[in-house]
Amino acid sequence: MSTPPHPWWKSATVYQIYPASFFDANGDGTGDLAGIIAKLDYLKDLGVDVIWLSPIYRSPLADMGYDISDYEDIDSRYGTLEDWDRLLEGVHTRGMKLMMDLVLNHTSDEHAWFTASKSSKNDPKRDWYIWRPGKVVDGVELPPNNWKSVFQGSAWERDPATGEYYLHLYLSKQPDLNWDNPIVRSAVWDVMRFWVRRGCDGFRMDVINIISKTDGLPDAPLVDHTQYYQPASMYFANGPQVHRYIKQMHTEVLSHHDLITVGETPFTHEASELAAYVLPQNRELNMVFHFELMDIDSSSESPLLRKPWTLSELKAIVGRWQRFMRDDGFWNAVFIENHDQARSVSRFGNDSAQWRAISAKMLAIFEITQTGTLYVYQGQELGLKNFPRTWGIEEYNDVASQNYWNLIKEQRQKAQGKEDVEMSDLLDSFALKARDHARTPMQWNASAHGGFTTGTPWMRVNDDYPEWNAEQQIGDETSVHAFWKRALKVRKMHDALIYGDFVMLLDAHEQVFAYTRNYESTSALVLLNFKEGKAELDLGKVIKGVAGYAFVLGNYENEGIGLEEKVTLMDYEGRVYVREGLLN
Fold this sequence. Notes:
- The protein is an alpha/beta fold.
- The protein contains 15 helices and 22 strands.
- The chain has helices spanning 33-38, 40-46, 81-93, 112-119, 182-198, 242-252, 271-278, 311-323, 344-347, 356-368, 399-416, 424-433, 470-474, 480-493, 495-499, and strands spanning 13-17, 50-53, 57-58, 70-74, 97-103, 131-132, 135-137, 140-142, 156-159, 164-167, 202-206, 260-264, 287-289, 333-334, 373-377, 503-505, 512-519, 522-529, 535-538, 550-554, 566-569, 574-579.
- It has an eight-stranded parallel β-sheet.
- Helix 10 packs parallel to helix 14.
- The relative contact order is 0.10.
């Protein structure tokens, strides 16, 4: 019996574009759709199959476009719907696909739906959002419950016009939609149909697992004694109706088209909860972004604070997800960078001058040898790194950075009884962990502002652009860019790297991550040294013979190196070997 062909999206390489920072064609300092059109050949040449655009809808940009004021129009900063049509045509002409970023849990407070909703308690759209009266405690009016916003402070905002509070799990300018209202769900399906009719090939769905809140919206348990408002994800993540609503989305919209779908599912590490969104028989989404690996170096207090991580922890997380419910059809989304994460070479590699390129290439091998749909974030293919510690807080534009800074500053001022408090420890953390590092403009060449704009960039370009940029790398076969291009080809050539099983080797090794991927009659062996310093390996004890393994990819100039039982890996070295034609 022949194996049925795999859906196209499983072997796809998806490239995420953060439009404000990609390329500015009109010189106003903000990236735009015309800029993306100008770089389509660059993306095709790299090996990209699908382009995912972070939100480009009309927005006041309180949270960089994740606050949408019109789902069916393009923000003028980026262009027009006609520009989008031209972009789509250019993408499709080159054999690529275009994926939109849908933010469906909340809108902007400037969306016409919310303007109507807040106008009166009797407005037909009042229950399109989540409104509640405050509660009075000891003669003082408080919000309806003690839920903390993801971006600090109360998750409720009082509207003076009606005296009631609306729920906003993020910013006060991002009111949550009431998904329990079937008319709201119908309006959402219409938004999706609008983009599919226009030619969009799929959707990334922002925080899709928080659309259903626990009935009664109970107070969250007290875990942080420094403040009244408490983290409440146990009452809004993976809520009681979330799967019913996504199944309805599948029935109404997704099942009628051949789309790629990925849901963002924060606040969730429990595998069985995540599986429910993805398993094919459930008819929901193709895959989800979960954050267990991304949270490996995050303090429980805040993702902006770093905690040390070990390779053993990383191996355990990756190994578990690579093997998870494979036979039932669970499918991974493989990523180590996006617009909400610091740069991977600075987090998981070594961004010093000596090891930056080598370790960035090792991380490329780490990604392209995992089962799942592969996601690459803009600039990752160049080995872009975090901006320097010398930058002050004024360079951190992200609302998450600014709000957390202000919260801690106020706490310290209150505790110490003075205005001028020491904050350098927080800048140390931000320099490693802030979302801002992903959002610096792309470094295209060595000209002013890295060739990103002829104007003044909306955000400062990283200082290293004169010597670290796309133009300088494209002509250099030893560059990170050239390596990514090669690595993506190697992945496409070997189905074992995409669909094979996953067998961990040398589990206890504290420096090397090694595994095999076996598919049909092919076996791939992956060796990754995650640290500075050589690593001696004895493969004789962990694999059945080294004969027949051919070297297919490595980040040192050692093409054609044969595989022997005893292997010495150089600092941050990665290698891939493939053995074809063995009978199972």
